[in-house]
Write a structure and sequence with these properties.
heterotetramer; A: 519 residues; alpha/beta; nine-stranded parallel β-sheet; B: 245 residues; Defensin A-like; Rossmann fold; 2 domains; five-stranded parallel β-sheet; 7 helices; binds cobalamin; binds pyridoxal-5'-phosphate
Chain lengths: 519, 245, 245, 519
């Protein structure tokens, strides 16, 4: 791809170098820690599942029992219990759900535990590799049938069965990606609910059963439409790695997953988030799941012109964090958004500049591009046009994952007809400008080119500052999104655990090995 | 089956509306709009947008939920053609077999209406959307008189060529000008004692079979019609008449 | 004054609608859609468009004309604030003169709601659309507790700082979750015998004064609210209460 | 303006040369003929107005009386009657309306007639120059307040008073141009109705009183909005020159006016149309009225891709005919349209190519660009997006006069709210891409550039053929719009009159002189 913006390669390299420097000390911290949800995620990979009569999930029951023993890693105890009880994984899960305590079982032979654990790793590995192979095979079988950029819509009824109807309808109408939005505030639950759910507000619970139900429903459509349908959820919030684990097991294809979103926008403790994000990303990487990062969130509270550099800086950091977790660029759905004030003169030019800039700086990433949201109003007719221009920019700059703007964005979570209207809008625009990207060039030193260069410069300058103070202090000072988050505050801090000298996690080791990560 | 509109949940009754009120924009206008929507039978009404159109006129976008429902099972549709629509070849075959002579059809866009694209789509050789027009039917003799043809002239022509069927196209419907013109045509035909001589069809983007029948036509054809449809209708009717006699 | 929607002629009653029906697309679906629109009280109904959404679901765009009207003169609006809205300086002046101490306000986005932009627009220094927020008012002590604040915690805080007014923001309204949460708040306040202690306001893009009052709040504020509005409301109420005592 | 399309100057010149050659023999024919409506128009310029009890307009009464004397020009008789009766113009009009015959009054002194006629020419000239000066002054006073391209909407209620409301509303919402659409089939009336009218179908009668009412209504808005509002009607059909005359007198600013539209699309006789169009254009030119030509009509029956060349060819011919009538390029609102099938892949690129091509070939003309109409459907949400792309192309190619697409195009003549929605759509798009035209370039030899070059080539080839056979035979053979129009058929032929040796028309002479036309 030829550059249309004449961005300085040097400055881009500098930004990447800065990202590496900024992220590096955080990696050291991560290496020494685990968290309750990392352990629960590991248990889930090992097979822990189910819930007790109060709905407390088995992985939570185990971790709660372990208390300070958690520093050794939860797997040891789970596998030990398997060996001691002679139960199958399912049997053990049932027992634990019925109240069995496994923390105090005498620990058996380490070698035996490791041997059994490796067995579980293998079956995990087989399952996830099978999922991955299946996805790849279907993508290959139905190559060329997806739209480019991918058309992404959300369903959010709160009821998984209603979601299924709406998702199948949307996929039938041309959607390539279905995201099941989570219920309001699930991100702050320190557990993942169990089973199929039919209640939620503004979204539907992310549960493994719900994943399974939706995956099966979409697989039907895949065959009918002869097109692979990507399923998306949120590996985000207090259970980031667990949801990644569930997604890997149930063949989700994308996950909202950001290295700092939880800290800034959900007031989750930063240590906790940094540790969680890495493990979640290793799982995503292994499972071939595309992550969608949350840079668009900066623009829901800040101005999209003024604070464009925060988006780009965050992309560089997300990229770095992702590389550190073994994610290749082609799985990085780095986020950005079309969120300028619609009354802004030449706003389209600036949006175009920024979208093209993201495209050129991250040429391999399937960029996730968000539609106008905060400047959408109850005027649905105006909204259609805002969405049309967004569709235009996305197509002409070759974005990867295109979240569909809804004409009713300011009113309600999408009706079935809203999604259809949005899909018609996008399909028409995309087809009508199919090859435009290759046809137009930008004037040298014009408004568009200068805007992109300016944002890059501002980003580098910002990252230089962050590098100087360090990432955690910078967050504490409110340098990101004007939100100050002290490192010892925020939700989930009590779930942070320093790894003990005996820490054992064969799943982590397996993943590191598979992903070619040192350590 | 009782059905209601569907937003995102069965039977939620969700509907979108937009309209203008002849009052100024503002809180009072919005409340008036909301009350109006309620009066139409909506609950959970919401005026999601309003803006001024002019002094004393304002525009509203609304969403509401209604319990108004209809019984889908009792919905009856009266299309001119049933499920079986002949292809061109089939139609010609049937004509050859069952009628044994060419069927004569005269068409026009009548009155002041100059929208010929519709009638051309039905009659011209090249047809429409890969459906050939009547002129291409080997067993049909088709005369297309074009635009703005006076009713009188169309009838005279139909008599002259001994038409089996007359096809009228009406596209301009503002202030029901098409109704006036269509009624006038039938009255004229009756006055001349010719009503029973012809199968008379009317088509147009806002014409339906129901309306056509009410106005005294044999059949009416709306959006998405092809020559196939009207040919099927005419052929079947001609055969019927032969049998009847 | 009796008013009806206006398309292009006074009282023509023209309205646009769109909705989904849980039936397949096709002539029968379209006729069902038309009958539904008629049942809402429309004449001259027309389904201008339909398309399939899924197996058993279809989308309709309709236009119709209705004789349903409302009497504009009887429309009553009950906004929290009347015509007179104080500017920041005026509000502070009135507080100094008539109250003689700082007015204390506590605000939060409650329940599971994390949409802080609205409450921030009202409270933060920088305000919204060139209208400063309450934090900038020299005579107001404003505490913004941010997102997802439990009702209990908000009440405790208000008690602690001896608030005159409590401001609640609710943006997520799906399945009426806001109603539940708002009702719970008032019940909690009553249970604690604190209802009369505070002026309690709620705001949000789908909140109106009417709804707020129905739910037991003193005032409600919707789209387009500025700090000026709620400040005016609070200041006037505090003065009223002083007089009342 | 730099060329983005690398169109061959040579080929453009060739097309203009061909247009000149094609039009030239027609001009010879025109010079020798007048028509009933040319004479009635002349009478109107002289002051003839009013109607008899049956509604027959005074100019028609006069011309009908004159019969074969018409070959001498109607003015002679009208002025003669003024002199003979000693009546004022108004007085004479009244008498004629009451039944007075002026054809048989003995003809007085030619010099005296000419003297009196010159007086009438002067008062006509003063009035029209005053109108023109007023328009120019207002445009200057409110410079920079109109949108570019001009936002053009139609009103079409049938009732002039309802039209006024809607026109004022639209102007208040940002419309720059108000066109009062004529009632269905007025173009085929061989007279112009008299007085204010409140009935019409799909449009409102063009009458001088209606012009006056609307002009006054819009002038109010001009002051309120501090923006000049252009008023438009149709100098087209069987009364082409008369409506031009009325427009000149009542300060209309634009006229639909095409040299061949009536022939092709209204089956008006070609001799008649050619003669009429010239006189109407001379009036328009003198009154500073912008003409809007009707090339868009080709695309309502033919395919916009296949037959693009017919549009360009017609533009060249309209341009030539207009030059011959003394119209400067800046008054030529040459028409074209955004009418490709919306399912066409890369349709936007082709529309863009054609719009840019028109812009580059006619750099000074205030091109009139028509929105999608025939591919609009009852799906108003889709329609909004089609219109948005149209708005985009128009702005980015700097069109002159932008007819607003209506989301309800396939349903009804515009509701008040439809117009507002359309204006919001256009204003948003225009402002959002304000300077985009100067920012983008097209790839050399890309799809866009090649498309434009291809259309130009096809046009030249087509015009070569027309030149070979001659314009009238070409029309007879159906070379334009696939419609065959024999020269001795069509409406209004009986109104064609060969000028006699005594033919006298001081208004024509005056106009020719003012416009610098020979003869
Ligand atoms: C093209 C067009 C024109 C062209 C017509 C060219 C021509 N030779 O036909 C021109 C530019 C001349 C024109 C002029 C006018 N038009 Co016009 N025009 C349209 C337009 C854009 C498309 C119509 C069309 O060609 N559709 C495609 C054909 C294939 O569809 P169809 O006609 O519906 O036909 C199908 C079926 O209905 C059916 N059918 C139709 N007739 C028949 C007959 C029989 C027997 C059968 C079996 C079936 C059948 O089969 C066809 C194929 O499926 C529409 C808007 C729109 N997008 O629909 C406005 C529209 C129809 N026009 C309109 C108006 C008002 C006018 C004018 C009166 C405006 C004016 N004041 O100047 C003039 C007057 C013309 C006149 N005297 O009638 C209005 C009508 C409003 C109304 N509901 O009354 C419309 C809706 C635009 C609008 N929103 O204002 N128009
Ligand atoms: C920005 C935004 C977000 C941001 C919020 C960031 C933040 N810190 O606030 C993020 C991305 C985090 C977000 C998340 C979600 N959102 Co959200 N979000 C929006 C969006 C795009 C804009 C809201 C906004 O900022 N408006 C601007 C402010 C200034 O307007 P306002 O809030 O109405 O406030 C004004 C007035 O209402 C009033 N006001 C408001 N509060 C108060 C209080 C008082 C006392 C007074 C006097 C006045 C007052 O004054 C303000 C100024 O005039 C809207 C869509 C839209 N365009 O409206 C969706 C929207 C509100 N979100 C929605 C949903 C569903 C969600 C999620 C639940 C989705 C999910 N499942 O993940 C999550 C959950 C968050 C949660 N736990 O609550 C839905 C709500 C649907 C409904 N009606 O219930 C909307 C409508 C989008 C949609 N169509 O689906 N969202
Ligand atoms: C990375 C990420 N996670 C999660 C969410 C969703 O919000 P919540 O935290 O409420 O699940 C978003 C929304 O934009 C996001 O970008
Ligand atoms: C040049 C011209 N004249 C007239 C008209 C209007 O049609 P009518 O001839 O019915 O007035 C058009 C419509 O497109 C036109 O382009």
């Amino acid at each position: 791809m030829e550059s249309k913006l004449a961005l300085s390669e040097k400055r881009i390299e500098r930004a990447r170098e800065l990202a590496k420097r900024i992220v590096s000390p955080v990696q050291d911290f991560i290496a020494e820690h685990t968290t309750v949800t990392v352990e629960r995620a590991t248990l889930r990979l090992a097979g822990a599942d189910g819930a007790d009569v109060d709905g407390v999930p088995v992985p939570n029951l185990i971790v709660d029992q372990l208390k300070s023993k958690l520093e050794n890693g939860a797997v040891t105890y789970y596998v030990n219990a398997l060996l001691k009880t002679g139960e199958s994984v399912d049997g053990l899960n049932r027992k634990i759900a019925e109240g069995m305590k496994i923390a105090d079982l005498p620990l058996g032979d380490k070698m035996a535990i490791d041997r059994k654990a490796q067995e579980l790793v293998r079956s995990f590995s087989v399952r996830v590799k099978r999922n991955r192979a299946h996805r790849e095979a279907k993508l290959k079988q139905f190559e060329g049938r997806n739209t480019s950029p991918l058309l992404y819509v959300i369903v959010a009824t709160g009821n998984i069965h209603e979601d299924v109807k709406q998702a199948q309808a949307a996929a039938g109408q041309g959607a390539d990606v279905i995201a099941v939005i989570r219920t309001t505030a699930q991100s702050l639950l320190d557990y993942v609910p169990y089973g199929a759910t039919i209640e939620g507000f503004g979204g539907t619970y992310a549960t493994q059963e719900n994943f399974r139900i939706m995956r099966a429903a979409l697989d039907e459509v895949v065959e009918r439409e002869q097109r692979y349908i990507y399923l998306t959820n949120y590996a985000s919030g207090l259970c980031m790695p667990e949801i990644a684990a569930m997604g890997a097991l149930e063949r989700l294809d994308m996950m909202l997953n950001d290295s700092m979103y939880g800290i800034l926008f959900r007031d989750i403790n930063m240590y906790r988030t940094f540790v969680d994000q890495k493990f979640s990303r290793m799982i995503n990487a292994f499972a071939g799941v595309i992550i969608n990062t949350g840079e668009d969130n900066y623009l829901t509270t800040s101005d999209a012109v003024e604070k464009a550099y925060t988006v780009l800086a965050s992309q560089f950091l997300n990229e770095r964090f992702a590389f550190e977790a073994g994610l290749p660029a082609k799985l990085m759905g780095l986020g950005h958004a079309f969120e300028m004030n619609p009354t802004l003169k030449n706003g389209f030019l600036f949006e175009l500049a920024q979208a093209q800039m993201a495209r050129e700086i991250f040429p391999e990433a399937p960029l996730k591009y968000m539609p106008p949201t905060k400047f959408m109003t109850g005027d649905i007719f105006k909204g259609q046009v805002q969405d049309a221009l967004f569709n235009f920019v996305s197509k002409v700059t070759n974005q990867g994952i295109h979240l569909l703007g809804m004409l009713t964005e300011a009113i309600h979570t999408p009706f079935m007809m809203d999604r259809s209207i949005a899909l018609e809008n996008a399909k028409y625009v995309f087809n009508n400008i199919e090859d435009l990207a290759g046809e137009i060039e930008f004037k040298k030193d014009g408004l568009i080119v200068r805007r992109a260069q300016q944002v890059l410069e501002e980003t580098v300058a910002f990252m230089e500052t962050v590098d100087k103070v360090g990432l955690m202090p910078a967050i504490e000072q409110g340098q990101f999104a004007d939100i100050k988050r002290p490192r010892d505050m925020g939700k989930g801090l009590d779930g942070l655990v320093k790894k003990g000298p005996e820490y054992y996690n064969p799943f982590e080791s397996y993943l590191k090995n598979e992903l070619g990560l040192e350590g | 089956m009782i059905i209601r509109p569907y937003g995102d949940t069965l039977d939620d009754g969700a509907v979108q509306l937009s309209f203008t009120l002849p009052v100024p924009d503002g809180p009072k206008g919005r409340e008036a709009a909301r009350l109006f929507v309620e009066k139409l039978g909506f609950k959970h009404t919401e005026i999601t947008h309003s803006h001024a159109l002019a002094e004393g006129f304002s525009f509203y976008v609304a969403y509401g939920k209604t319990e108004t429902s209809i019984d889908f099972d009792t919905v009856r549709i009266k299309e001119a053609t049933g499920d079986k629509v002949y292809s061109m070849d089939e139609a010609c075959e049937v004509i050859k077999e069952k009628i044994g002579r060419k069927v004569v059809v005269v068409g026009a866009c009548t009155g002041f209406d100059a929208h010929t694209v519709g009638i051309d789509a039905i009659m011209n050789m090249k047809g429409y959307n890969h459906h050939y027009g009547l002129e291409r039917y080997s067993e049909i003799e088709a005369y297309n008189l074009g635009a703005q043809v006076p009713n009188e002239k169309l009838i005279d022509y139909a008599v002259k060529v001994k038409a089996d069927a007359i096809l009228i196209s009406q596209i301009v419907t503002q202030k029901d000008v098409h109704i006036q013109n269509l009624v006038e045509f039938i009255e004229l035909l009756q006055a001349k004692g010719l009503r029973e001589k012809f199968i008379v069809c009317v088509g147009g983007s806002r014409i339906g079979n129901q309306l056509a029948v009410e106005l005294g036509y044999d059949g009416g054809f709306g959006k998405g019609t092809y020559a196939d449809h009207v040919a099927t209708f005419i052929v079947d009717r001609v055969i019927e008449q032969k049998v009847a006699r």
